C-alpha cells in the first residue's frame, strides 16, 4: 500500500557531519535572531546558546529553570515562551537557553516544535519537507 503526503515547504540542507541543519528564527517582543540549528528528534525541547536569549533581551535566569540530561552528563537551561519560525512556519513555542556561556549547541526538539509539524526527510538529496501538523 502506498501513502502520499503533501507538504507546504521544501528546504535544502547540507549535512556537514554534525547533523541536519535548518535555519530557525526566534522572536521575542520586537526583537529577532536567526540561528543555524540542528534537528534533534531525541531532544524534548528546543535548546539554544545563552547568547541568543541575551540578544533577544531576555534575563536568562528569570526563565523556568530545568535540568537536561545527555549521554555525557547534564546541564541547566531556562525556558521562555517565544515565537519560533522555520521555513516561514511560525509557532508559539517554549524554548530553552543554556545557563552556561560555553554551551554551543542549538537544537530543534520535539515539544512545541516537531509536534507542530509534519516532517519529511530525503537525506540523500539534502531535502526537508515541512507542513503544519493538524490532527484529522
Characteristic terms for this protein:
single chain, 136 residues, three-stranded antiparallel β-sheet, globular, mainly beta, Cathepsin D, subunit A, domain 1, seven-stranded mixed β-sheet
Describe the structure.
The protein has 136 residues and is mostly beta strands. The chain has a single domain (20-132), classed as Beta Barrel (Cathepsin D, subunit A, domain 1). It is built from 1 helix and 10 strands. It has one helix spanning 50-55, and strands at 9-12, 21-28, 31-39, 46-48, 64-70, 73-86, 89-98, 107-108, 117-122, 127-132. The strands form 2 sheets. Strands 2, 3, 4, 5, 6, 7 and 8 form a 7-stranded mixed β-sheet that branches. Strands 1-10-9 form a 3-stranded antiparallel β-sheet, with no helix packed on it. Strand 9 (117-122) and strand 10 (127-132) form a beta hairpin. The longest helix is centred in the middle third of the chain and has 6 residues, at 50-55. It is globular, with a radius of gyration of 15 Å.
